[in-house]
Write a structure and sequence with these properties.
485 residues; alpha/beta; 29% helix; binds flavin mononucleotide
């Protein structure tokens, strides 16, 4: 007999949200450290199956993965994941065993790995404190979303935050998962009209025999405009509890500019008046909202509050703190560049195969260097950013503009679309020390950051790095909000 469980109440509203940062830059350690300061810590759920599978193959030193897996409510499912990926002595330099590339043909084993992995990340972030934890997913990465949400809900996730697309279906999906009802979503297929017959993605939570249904988390879409916020309030498939309003200065992917598409001499998109957010419209929606992008000081926090925001979401300052998932040598290289005033972040309109602008920090030895980029043999073996398309035969195929050029063209892709694309799946995995081993070394990393990378200087303590708690203390120095932390 399953007992229905109430939805999560966002009250009291968090003043500070640590933004979700993939792949596993905002891992369970960072999110937990932030939650323990009384604010909202957010784990990244992007490619979380790959992250768990690789941590297990690295021997899970410390045993945290296995501890959390032992608490998964359906032990047989977690056991099968462990059996498949855990290597007690690590890989001994060998390449990682792959996880299946995601598609509408995903079987139960693929869905189970996602659910277990999201459960583990949230359960570890929630360990031994009463603070709140959210999970961030990218709307564009559609296939893994529902099993990942369900796994996070099994661990009691409080908030789901999603941008990089229009997450209209998600509120209704959260309602169904909380009611333990099967979820069916239409696969997004490039070029297919709404009337065209396309495959559906299916996930059945009743495969997980549990006594108490999970709580329905609060849902905060990440938007770049008041127009999109308004559309979501009116047309989303269920309730939206608030918004993150993200400016194009933010790290990671950005919304493309509205309007004509002008670029500067470096090829960076130029934003104009049409990209300005109308805060009167935001306030009139009657839902709390948080501002993101370039919030790096108590003054910026106060300015955000003055617009009527409930608080702020911050990424860049947290991305390079001690608890972040970025591999230590890369984090040191970034801090060193900042220390010497040599930091530079490019808003690339080419790097991401999604077509969205993506920020790339210039760090020696990473894909930001032309020589490193050119030396990498193009290959697509993770495939999270692939798009589904209709083959001439009528079947469904998957392609990515960062895959080998000949493959992309053979799949009906445009050669021009492949130019200067980076393999973000492999590059971002390498940035957190989980890069795949190739014949000629380890995959090169790519580091993303907000435009305000230099503001890390304001929290840098004599070059020795800083903690998540230092960031919180720095941002909220002297900031007072009646009735809240
Ligand atoms: C390293 C890094 C990775 C990010 N990855 C994601 C992501 O996976 N999903 C997402 O919605 N936002 C992502 N972001 C954006 C943050 O969640 C946050 O909104 C943003 O960093 C706020 O702006 P700021 O970087 O100026 O602080 C990322 C930001 C950084 C710095």
């Amino acid at each position: 007999m399953r007992t229905p469980t109430p939805s999560v109440d966002l009250d009291p509203l968090p003043l500070l949200i640590q933004g979700g940062m993939g792949v596993a830059v905002s891992n369970y350690r960072l999110a937990r450290a932030v939650a323990m300061t009384g604010h909202l810590g957010v784990v990244s759920g992007t490619a979380i199956d790959l992250v768990l599978a690789r941590r297990l193959q690295d021997g899970d030193p410390g045993g945290e993965m296995r501890d959390a897996m032992a608490r998964f409510p359906v032990p047989g499912i977690a056991d099968r994941v462990l059996e498949r990926y855990f290597l007690p002595a690590g890989r001994r330099g060998r390449p990682y065993r792959g996880v299946p590339m995601r598609s509408h043909r995903d079987n139960h084993a693929s869905q189970d790995l996602l659910a277990v992995a999201a459960f583990v990340e949230v359960a570890l972030a929630k360990r031994d404190h009463q603070g709140r934890i959210g999970i961030n997913l990218l709307t564009k990465v559609q296939v893994p979303t529902v099993p990942s949400l369900f796994g996070a809900m099994l661990a009691g996730v409080d908030v789901v935050l999603m941008g990089a697309g229009i997450p209209r279906d998600i509120p209704g999906i959260l309602d169904r998962l909380a009611a333990m009802e099967p979820v069916e979503t239409r696969l997004e297929v490039a070029g297919a009209s709404a009337r065209e017959s396309v495959p559906h993605l299916r996930f059945d939570p009743t495969r997980f025999p549990i006594d108490t249904a999970p709580r329905r988390p609060a849902f905060l879409p990440i938007v770049s405009s008041h127009t999109l916020a308004t559309v979501l309030v009116r047309k989303a498939s269920g309730s939206v509890e608030g918004f993150i309003v993200e400016a194009p200065t933010a790290g990671g992917h950005n919304a493309p500019p509205r309007g004509t598409g002008a670029y500067d001499a470096l090829g960076q998109p130029l934003y104009g008046d049409r990209d300005q957010v109308d805060f009167e419209v935001m306030r009139d929606l009657g839902l709390p909202f948080w501002l993101a992008g370039g919030i790096d000081s108590p003054e910026r926090v106060r300015e955000a509050l003055d617009t009527g925001a409930a608080g702020v979401q911050v990424g860049t300052l947290f991305a390079f703190c001690r608890e972040s998932g970025i591999a230590q040598p890369l984090r040191s290289a970034v801090l060193d560049a900042v220390h010497r005033g040599r930091e530079f972040v490019l808003t690339s309109s080419r790097a991401s195969s999604t077509g969205y602008p993506f920020k790339v920090a210039a760090i020696p030895g990473t894909l930001s260097e032309q020589a490193v980029y050119a030396a990498r043999t193009r290959l697509c073996d993770l495939g999270y950013l692939r798009e589904a398309y209709i083959k001439p035969s009528g079947g469904i195929g998957y392609r990515c503009a960062a895959e080998p050029v000949a493959d992309h063209i053979a799949k009906g892709g445009d050669a021009a679309a492949t130019v200067d694309r980076m393999c973000l799946c492999n590059g971002l995995s390498a940035a957190i020390g989980l890069g795949q081993v190739r014949g000629d070394g380890v995959e090169p990393a790519v580091i993303t950051s907000g435009d305000g990378l230099g503001s890390v200087r304001t929290v840098l303590d004599n070059g020795d790095g800083y903690s998540a708690a230092d960031v919180v203390a720095h941002l909220l120095r002297g900031v007072q909000v009646a009735g809240r932390a």
